[in-house]
Amino acid sequence: MFIVGLLALAAFGNVANAHTAAFAPGMYCHGGPDPSQDNPHTSDAVVPLYNLPRSQLWFQADRGCDRAPPAPGVFLELPAGGSFTVELAHNRAQTTLSFNGEFASDWPDGQQHPEHWKGPGNPPDCIQDDGAMHTNNQSMAAGTAFAISYASDISAVTMENLVVFTVLPKDLPACPADGCTCAWLWVPKGCGERNMYMQGFKCKVTGSTSTRRLAPAHPLEAEGNNIELPSNGDFVSYSPDWGFSPGAQNDIFV
Ligand SMILES: *[C@@H]1O[C@H](CO)[C@@H](O)[C@H](O)[C@H]1NC(C)=O
C-alpha cells in the first residue's frame, strides 16, 4: 500500500522534489544512508547538489551517502570496451533493485510514456508531467556521465584522480583488489533549477589487459570550480559543447 501512495505522489505534482539517480549494484546509499537498514524505497541518492562546499557535495556527503558503501564484494562491473546498464529513477522502488522490478518501467518515474516523450506545444515546452526529466524532449536532454578513480577508498578520491569516461574505453586498466570508486554525474540543462549530481559507486573494470594510466573537469561547485559558468545563463553539461562527445572518451589517458 505504501508503494501505491508513493507512486501517486510522484505522478501528481510535488515534481520539484522528484529528482533522479542512477541505481545499480555497487551504488552507495543502495538502501539509504544507514548501512544497517535496507530501505526498498529510498530516494536518498536522488536529491541533487547545488552550490555546496566540496566537503558537502563530494559523493553526497551532505546526506551521509559517502559513508554507506555497498555490501562487501558488490561492485558495479565495467567491462573494458563493453557496456553496462544502470537504471535512472526517482526512487529505488521504481527500479529492478526493489520488489523484483514490479514498479519499474522504461522511464524514471515508473510510468508509461511515448517513445518520443516531449513537452506540450510546438516547439515543445519543458516536459510538465515529470519535471525531474529537466528537458523538452530527447534532443534537448543533457548527457549524464560516469567517472572513475583508481582509489578504492572513497575518501582518497580527489578532483585530480577522478576521470570522466562516459562510454567504456577498451584501454581502461583493471582496478585495485578492493575495486575502484566511480561517480555518476549529471548537470541537467534547463527546465528547472540549476543543479548537479555526483553519486558514488564501488566499481571494477573487468576483462582488461591494459596498463595505461588516466589523466584528469567539474562545474557548479562553490569551490575548486574549474569551469567558468556562461554569463548568458546557459547550462554547462556533459555534451559536445563542453568537450564531451558521445561515445568512449579515448582522450583521457596520459
Ligand atoms: C526539441 O525541443 C526543442 C525546444 O523546444 C526544439 O527546439 C526542438 O526542435 C525539438 N526537437 C525535436 C526533434 O522535436
Automatic annotation (TrEMBL):
Compartment annotation: Secreted
Cofactor(s) it depends on: Cu(2+)
Coarse class of the protein's main subcellular location: secreted
UniProt KW NADP keyword: no
Single annotated GO MF: metal ion binding
Database matches in Pfam families: LPMO_AA14 (PF22810)
Name of the protein in its database record: Uncharacterized protein
